[in-house]
Amino acid sequence: MAIRVPGIMHAKQILRQSSLFANKPSSTSSMGVPKGYVAVYVGESERKRFVVPISFLRQPLFQELLSKAEEEFGYNYPTGRLTIPCTEDIFVDLTSRLNRLM
Q: PANTHER family recorded for this chain (predicted)?
């Protein structure tokens, strides 16, 4: 089994960037995110907050979403939040599949 180091490094960089903004005041607090989880915002126009296990960041399907986020936003998220540019339906379907794998 091969380890995709670039994917893991990509995920770590995104988390590091989003944690830089964690101390900034915002309308949505970082409170309520349990240890071992990360909050992500999903949607094309209106964004909805989801809390997912950090273990998802290692999964190839989730890494594809992170790559899309990188293409659209780079590492500088305008709101300081990790935002996934896909529909809520696609995200729920993907996370459901990942939950079944774990």
A: SAUR-LIKE AUXIN-RESPONSIVE PROTEIN FAMILY-RELATED (PTHR31929)
Residue 41 tokens read as 């915002």
| Whole-number Å distance between alpha carbons of 63 and 5 | 11
Q: State pTM to two decimals.
A: 0.63
Residue 96 lies inside a defined structural domain of this protein: yes
- Tallying the residues shown for the chain, one arrives at 102
Written as one string, the DSSP assignment of 54-89 is: GGGGGSHHHHHHHHHHHHHHTT--TTSS-EE-S-HH
pLDDT digits (tens, 9 = 90+) for 46-95: 889 999 999 999 999 999 999 988 888 787 766 678 888 889 999 999 99
Tally of domains within the chain: 1
* Domain interval for residue 66: 43-101
Q: Are 52 and 96 in contact (CB under 8 A)?
A: no
